[in-house]
Design a protein that fits this description.
Elements: E1 5-9, E2 15-19, H1 21-33, E3 37-41, H2 47-53, E4 62-67, H3 71-78, H4 82-88, H5 93-107, E5 111-117, E6 131-138, E7 141-148, H6 153-179
Parallel strand pairs: 3-4, 3-5
Antiparallel strand pairs: 1-2, 5-6, 6-7
């Protein structure tokens, strides 16, 4: 099922998702560092958290997960400023940054990944489908990246999840480097 997980048939014939090596490494690393992570998601609708929770033992590192699909939720729950939403819109680097910082603060987590974007079939704003901003806050240091993914809604969301996990990995790399 895309780049995050592999599907496996269970005894009853249904499919179960197995974690990828990236997810396993992230959970192991967070556990080793004694750190927690949370996710604040919009267009991915909880898929980042689902990817992490596919790893056995992830309950020791995933503090919580939030789906803040509408502007009101972004503002009320994680504190994205109304001014930011009005000036830059919900799909912007500024919003992704405030989502990541606010999510970490709200959950009391060491790390937070945020995802906001247009997955399709259209953006409703004139912006291109596939425009996604991903933020990652690790111990108060936040990075945001802009992506332009291609494909249908499912493909855009899958790519966003993979890049969110990779951005978390890079944030942990920077944190580890500073500690040494």
């Amino acid at each position: 099922m895309g780049t995050q997980t592999a599907e496996k048939k269970t005894q009853g014939g249904s499919t179960a998702q197995e974690p990828s090596k990236l997810q396993e490494k992230l959970v192991r690393r967070l556990r080793r560092l004694g750190m927690t992570v949370t996710a604040v998601e919009s267009c991915t609708g909880g898929m980042v958290a689902a990817a992490l929770t596919s790893v056995p033992g992830s309950s020791g590192v995933l503090a919580c997960s939030l789906v803040t699909y509408c502007d009101a939720a972004k503002h009320k729950i994680v504190g994205v400023k109304k001014k930011t939403l009005k000036k830059y819109t919900a799909v912007s680097a500024q919003t992704a940054k405030e989502m990541a910082q606010g999510g970490a603060r709200w959950a009391g987590a060491d790390c937070c990944v945020s995802v906001t974007g247009y997955a399709g079939p259209d953006s409703g704003s004139g912006e291109p489908v596939g425009l996604v901003y991903i933020g990652c806050c690790v111990k108060g240091r936040t990075k945001v990246r802009e992506f332009h993914f291609e494909g249908d809604r499912a493909a855009v969301r899958e790519q966003a999840v993979r890049q969110a996990l990779l951005l978390l990995k890079k944030g942990l790399d920077r944190y580890d480097k500073k500690r040494q």
